[in-house]
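Example record for the data management plan.
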Amino acid sequence: MFKKITFYLLLTLGLSAQSYAQTQLQEPAQEIAKHQTTPLTVGITEVPPFVMQADDGSWEGISIDLWQDIANSLGVEFEYQPMKFSALLDAVENSQIDVAVGALTMTADRDTRFDFTHPFYQTGLSIAVPEVPKHDLLASFKAFVSWQFLSVVLGLAGLLLAAGFLLWLAEHRKNPEQFGGTAAQGIGASFWWAAVTMTTVGYGDKAPTSFAGRLIGLVWMFAGMIVVASFTAAITASLTVNNLRTGIEGLSDLPGKTVATIADTASQRFLEEEHLRYQTYPDLTSAMASVVKGETDAIVYDRALLQYRNLHQEQPLSILSGVFAQQLYALALPEGSPLRAEISQQILRITEDNNWSNVRATYLGKEQ
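Corresponding structural encoding:
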């Protein structure tokens, strides 16, 4: 009997505590709505897939869905105020808006200008380069007439000429039947001998007979194997680099390249800290277009934004695997805003719910 009484007592206390906690969470939200006299001004910048304007003029996206859920829970009225990204940061710093909603990266510098809520999305920077053309006969032809390819061929011809000339010096008097005639004829025959010997074809139509000539031939046979291997590697590298166009396969390849990015963003600060040469653009579309046109070699920007925008590009880029400089997205409020604690609490509630993964999948797909 005593155990039953104890059980019901604990159950009652637990339910009371839960009810009290829920009441405590609801009271601040109700207080915010109760004392609201004017709609909140919510500054937004179009950054797909976080903030986008639909054909009917309404706003949608990951950040928009998040904010509307928060506003509904708090019972507050609001109105969107679209603006450019740089103006958005100034507006929240100067308390011209109540909340900034978008894809705002949390940084130490920005934290001195305004307050951040709890983060709602984790991402990082990635590199995008021109996409390698597939089955392009014109591109293949251009690769074979490129300076890299021609320089390798000229270098090989020079080696053949040098080996042939040495053999001609040793053979043209002692073996005039094969390497005689005029200097041009003799050197031409020696050049032919050097080529067939290097490739191990060895037709046998010409062969040195003197001691010096045979010694040169023996050395050239072994040297030819090295030359052929080096020539093959050089040609492969030349064609590969030409196909890659930029030769960028990772972060370590960026020094010496011109990198596109967006002005006043975390990606720009990263490039500055790494002392990399970069060119800023007002938006992601123009930055990606600069890579397609060849004005820049690559773009460094938030991976999620690159992936979404790349899906809608007429000429998509190739986004390299790997993420660096991890970043967190959050909402921004004027310093000391009374809304910060409640909005942060709502963000925790939303992001811990299973439905949050469905919201992200709606805009970014299942692969995160």
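Summary line stored alongside the record: The chain has three domains: 2-123+328-364, 130-136+248-324, 139-244.
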